[in-house]
């Protein structure tokens, strides 16, 4: 499987990632039912990553980072009204244990998670 993720700002493509995947969760998502498309870069990540996401309609949203045990590692947004369109959120991962983390978008229509691998 090949997946492509990109971010457009002011009609210019500022960022693109192409990956060949064989049953790997890449940190890319597009869910037409949930109204969010998102990409995390870099992934795997060190102490910082960035999530680019596009909302197809305004949402009240929280963005949290959970470890594999379901414990909250960070809260990036908490019940914030976000307009439709393209958004960018820096993710401070410093001080978190290396391993698999889940960046979770919570909205009034549901939740969606992206897998992030944190390196040392």
List keywords for this structure.
Immunoglobulin-like; four-stranded antiparallel β-sheet; 68% strand; globular
Radius of gyration (Å): 14 Å
Biggest sheet statistics: 4 strands, antiparallel
Q: Quote the distance from N terminus to C terminus.
A: 29 Å
Task: Assign an overall shape.
Answer: globular
Q: Give the number of DSSP strands.
A: 10
What is the CATH class?
Mainly Beta
Please give the share of residues in helix.
Answer: under 10%
- When the domains are counted, the total is 1
Which stretches of 5+ consecutive residues score pLDDT under 50?
16-26
Structure notes:
- There is one protein chain.
- This protein has a single domain (29-118), classed as Immunoglobulin-like (Sandwich), CATH 2.60.40.
- A hairpin with a 6-residue loop joins strand 4 and strand 5 (48-55).
- The protein has 120 residues and is mostly beta strands.
- The chain contains no helices and 10 strands.
- The chain is globular and about 35 Å long.
- The chain has strands at residues 2-9, 12-20, 28-31, 36-41, 48-55, 59-67, 72-82, 85-92, 99-107, 110-118.
- The strands form 3 sheets. Strands 3-4-5-8 form a 4-stranded antiparallel sheet, with no helix packed on it. Strands 7-6-9-10 form a 4-stranded antiparallel sheet, with no helix packed on it. Strands 1-2 form a two-stranded antiparallel ribbon.
